[in-house]
Amino acid sequence: MKIIHSFWSKPSLHKQKQEFSNNRKIGGWLDYKYFLMSNCLSLLTLKRENSNVDLYTDNHGYDILINQLGLPYGDVSFILNELENEDHRLWILGKIKVIELQEKPFIHVDNDVFTWAPFPKSNLNDHLIVQSKHPVPDIYITALLEVQQKLKNLPAHLNKNIIDYKFNANVGIVGGNDIGFFQNWCDMAKKFLKDNMNQIINLENIGYFNQIIEEFSISCMLSERKNVTYLIDCSKDINDLDSVLRFHFIPFIDKYIHLVGIAKHNKIACNHLELRLKYEFPEYHKKVMDIMYSMNYSDPTSSYEKIKNNRIYRSLQKVYHYKYNEIKTLKIKLYDNFSIQEEAEENVYLVEIDPFSGKEIQKDLLEGTDQLMYYFTEALSINDLIEIIKEDFKNTTEIEFKQLEENILSLVFEEILMIGSLEIL
Hints:
This protein has about 425 residues and is α/β, with parallel strands linked by helices. The protein is built from 13 helices and 14 strands.
């Protein structure tokens, strides 16, 4: 199976002012360094399971990814130079251009997707593979309503009643053996764009219009297919989509990360992207930072934030070293500058103190499962904690307790690997 990356540089690196809703300036990232790191981590994690990953880009993209970062792609195509005069807001043009070139089975992976497992394989000619399936986001419904009101000659799948749309597919990972499926999508998209270009460029939601052409249209076409493998099925609960954002469950539970949309502006998520690259591929982390320093980059990270990052980095070494069942036996405890405070009305807070100034940085009310942080004032393992709470949940069903156990795991590893409040001893 051919694995491909594509990077049309114009949407990400243009100079014009752009609203965040379009989500493409420097790839939508908080900072240019995370844009570079994302490209590195995406390719390098892919290559562990796939010996060859091809790149479709333009001259500027080649300069960044190959000349500057030295990323080990296989074949490189400059086909996206042909889009030089196109509107940068229509970033979907790059993906259409690349996918319509494919003549053999392929998987296209976005450069903000990171993988820790191989993709499923199938010899069936009609097999398709898609990242995830989930309820239709409200913003897509708003964008589709504008499309239905303002554009003409809509494809039949975009002209139905809003309530008839049952799910949406995230296509950060998309491909398969049925080339005809993707050619049909490209033909539809090109015709729709050609018939409506003068109106499209004036849409209020032009950024999300790209998603209507890409994800939403592909979702509609997938609804008529049977042999589709969704790597993650979030169709019953949109909150399950968080599974592609859970760095703290990588690599022992979750296997795919896709930092979608606003996640690219989340400081914790960006910080974890950097830590993962630094831990797994340190030579490429150094390359990125060398590029940044050559651009007079000034690191805004405070002394205490650097301490927390080092804590998380040390914890990563243990998470990667031990098997999942072994991790659950390791003793865990709050760091010394974190404490639990009980106040009036039985409120419990997690308090964080700056060890340099002694000042309070944060004070969070603990509710629900978060109240279990209280137990980590003393060293205990996840297995210890599970045994403790079993006594309080004797009447719960096995399914309910399994969900509770997953919530505990999520809490603990988020605090260890994302927040930096808990230490693996």
